[in-house]
Amino acid sequence: MNYLQNAPNPAEALINVQGNGALMKSNTLRVEWPTLALLVATYVVWGGAVLWVAGWSVPLAVVIAALAIAQQSSLQHEILHGHPLRWQWLNELMVRPSLNLLIPYGRFRDTHLAHHRDANLTDPYDDPESNFLAGRDWAALPGWVKLVYRFNNTLAGRMVLGPAIGQWAFMRGDMKTPCRRIMISWLAHGITAVPVVWLVLQSPMPLWAYLIAAYLGLSLLKIRTFLEHRAHEQSRARSVIVEDRGPLAFLFLNNNLHAVHHMHPQVPWYDLPMLYRGEKDRFLACNDSYVYPSYGTIFARHLVRAKDPVEHPLMHRALDDRTPPA
Predict the structure, then answer these.
(1) Taking a C-beta distance cutoff of 8 angstroms, is the pair 99, 192 a contact?
(2) How far out from the chain centre does Cα 230 lie?
(3) What angle do CA 52, 98, 205 make, to 5 degrees?
(4) pLDDT higher at 4 or 130
(5) Where is each Fatty acid desaturase domain found (predicted)?
């Protein structure tokens, strides 16, 4: 199969990989074994942390469980894009219990697929994953809330406060626009969370420790999402490439090559590095060289220094006459 067949912007597609045997083979497998094997390993590691490691070291169990929770979230992202099996109902069944206990898989799927409308990337109203605020909304905030948001725009703040702020905004949005699909997603989440909580309650890991692990797992994911999109006039230049090949890249399933993923969301995670290496110059030309060499560089530059303003720099208060969401 040609990876460009269902690309979101075929006219701007970067590479014709038709004839690339390795890529074609991985996309036509009935079972994408690397993804399936990693999913099994993730649940084994999670179970080992909760049921065994916690019996002799709760702090170590928290760390290991947090890594497994973050890895499952990355796998949920992979699965909502149609991997690893051809039967999507079965794919989703394998990740329906969200180990983080906070984000329903169904809501993550729906909002993330909406986020993939690249023309809306970073838009405070139309991109569900935007970290920017429109000017009029920013101006209306109390001073102390602005301080919180400014701290949240540093990497340290995003890891410490980001999961709580994101969860509040996420749930508030769902409560403001209740509909049958949203309610079903939350109901399904509540049902599938029961066996996870029950298993934790039967284990040596205290529930409070597991909740810390869940929060830490989401904090790790905030490293990836911290600057993966920027405000830019051209939508194709809004997604970052972080050329990291270390543990965080694996934890994020190569989604650090985010511009590549947005151009080819149907490509499995293990093929993204080869796809990027094959046409690196053209990918960087397409995203206007929005690139970092590693996550180490990002920590050094932005741990305590914000990269972006909270207010969207391209949405001027006087010009933005759209009605905010109810």
Answers:
(1) no
(2) 15
(3) 25
(4) 130
(5) 56-283
316 pLDDT tier (thresholds 50, 70, 90): low
Q: Kindly list the domain boundaries of the chain, sorted by start residue.
A: 30-302
DSSP-assigned beta bridge partners for residue 239: 229
Give the rounded distance of the alpha carbon of 150 from its chain centre. Answer: 21
Smallest CA-to-CA distance from 253 within 224, 295, 291 is with 224
Per-residue pLDDT reduced to its tens digit, 7-55 = 333 323 333 333 333 343 444 557 899 999 999 999 999 999 999 999 9
> Is the CB of residue 39 less than 8 Å from the CB of residue 45?
no
C-alpha distances out from residue 23 to 232, 273, 281, Å = 31, 11, 19
Per-residue model confidence (pLDDT) at position 167 = 93
Is 58:209 a contact under the CB 8 Å cutoff? yes
Q: Which long-range contacts (CB under 8 A, 24 or more apart) does 1-5 make?
A: 1/27, 1/28, 3/27, 3/264, 3/266, 3/267, 3/275, 4/264
Burial of 246 (0-12, 13-18, 19+ CB in 10 A): exposed
Overall size of the chain counted in residues? 326
Bridge partners of 311? 133
Q: Give CA–CA dist 125/132, Å, rounded.
A: 9
Cβ atoms of 85 and 150 closer than 8 Å:
no
Per the model's pLDDT, the better-predicted residue between 70 and 22 turns out to be 70
Ramachandran quadrant class, 320 (left: phi over 0; alpha: psi -120 to 50; beta: rest): beta
Helix, strand, or coil here: 85?
A: strand
